[in-house]
Amino acid sequence: MTPLKMDGSHILSTGSAVPDICIDNDLLGTILETSDDWISTRTGIKERKILAQHQSIIDLATTASKQALDKGFLEAEDLDLIIFATSTSNDLFGSASQLQYSLGAVRAAAFDITAACSGFVIALMVAHQFIQNNVYKNILVVGADTLSQWVDWSDRTTCILFGDGAGAAILQQNKTNDLLSFEINTDGSEAKQLCINHKRNFNNTIGNDQLTNLPSNSHYQPLQMNGKEVYKFAVSKVPDSINKCLQKVDLNSDDITWLLLHQANQRILETVASKLKIPTEKVLSNIQFYGNTSAASIPIALDEAFSTGYICHKDTIAIAGFGAGLTWGSIMIKWHAFE
Ligand code: UT7
């Protein structure tokens, strides 16, 4: 008898978490020259959730991951690998090991992926490779970011956009494959359009010429973005990327049940949908509640779509991430409720 082929990736379960502190547009209007009208009309955002002083990105990621484990009827010890997509790690060496410890996932290897708003999509693709190659069976993929700690709260052109959050998905090896196709891109020449630059300072007061290259008080600058250029990049590259993914599996945009894009701006979601001729009813959007949560935006929206019963057996979901790097990429999913 031929052994059962088990090289597919199944989305077993999802989870998500956002902080309790809610900052709405009117509240921002008390510290910035802005208004609910401007922010809502230009972005679709009404409020964002911000990490409390006593909380960390690991708290959010742990809550989201535990939800995914519970819904998937798995224990932390069942996890073989944790991939943590974040660009706001609380340790420059990576946060995945802290998440592994916090969950008690003692058997799991763990590492970070830094790819900003494309991070979760790229992490899913990486997890899929491990499953297809029969290396791991249960992989926790987490997207979490806390950009509230990295924006300049006096810069109205950027700070109004971002919020904090975490989302998680468990990918499990299965005979039925949910991840139909993917594609991923990078254009490093445009990295300056959206960045958090490292600033090196040097200690010139030591009085020893040989030691003037010793760095001193190096730090990161606040997030900088050329909003117009990033907007143009998103609405031109994302439809193309999704079309490439569709072509790889002989589908067209009519076959898409749900369009799930990185939640950066409601106008971007609508423009991309219109370019793909996808009706707005098929566009998943929660940006009004959370703003742009970077690597967390796709898994939070995915979790909400599963929890509310939007996503059903054999639905086709087109997912695309885009952002700093510049990076962008898409995944086509056909979700199966059972084996
Ligand atoms: O996750 C990474 C992906 N990021 C994105 O996808 C972001 C993409 N970009 C965008 O979403 C939009 O470009 C923004 C929402 C950031 C900006 O919208 P916009 O329609 O491109 O506005 P703008 O930058 O052209 O600014 C228009 C005006 C300017 O005033 P003037 O020069 O016309 O007098 C700005 O100074 O609006 C002003 N402005 C504001 N006014 C009130 C900029 N920010 C604000 C604000 N409140 N918060």
UniProtKB/TrEMBL annotation:
Its EC number is 2.3.1.180. Residues 111-188 form the Beta-ketoacyl-[acyl-carrier-protein] synthase III N-terminal domain. GO terms for cellular component: chloroplast. It comes from the Eukaryota. Residues 246-335 form the Beta-ketoacyl-[acyl-carrier-protein] synthase III C-terminal domain. The active site is at 117, 262, 292. InterPro entries: ACP_syn_III_C, ACP_syn_III_N, FabH, Thiolase-like. One of its GO terms (biological process) is fatty acid biosynthetic process. Pfam families: ACP_syn_III, ACP_syn_III_C. Signal peptide: none annotated. Residues 263-267 are annotated as: ACP-binding. It is found in: Plastid, Chloroplast. Belongs to the thiolase-like superfamily. FabH family. Catalyzes the condensation reaction of fatty acid synthesis by the addition to an acyl acceptor of two carbons from malonyl-ACP. KAS III catalyzes the first condensation reaction which initiates fatty acid synthesis and may therefore play a role in governing the total rate of fatty acid production. Possesses both acetoacetyl-ACP synthase and acetyl transacylase activities. Catalyzes the condensation reaction of fatty acid synthesis by the addition to an acyl acceptor of two carbons from malonyl-ACP. Catalyzes the first condensation reaction which initiates fatty acid synthesis and may therefore play a role in governing the total rate of fatty acid production. Possesses both acetoacetyl-ACP synthase and acetyl transacylase activities. Its substrate specificity determines the biosynthesis of branched-chain and/or straight-chain of fatty acids. The last Arg residue of the ACP-binding site is essential for the weak association between ACP/AcpP and FabH. This is Beta-ketoacyl-[acyl-carrier-protein] synthase III. It comes from Izziella formosana. The lineage of its organism: Eukaryota, Rhodophyta, Florideophyceae, Nemaliophycidae, Nemaliales.
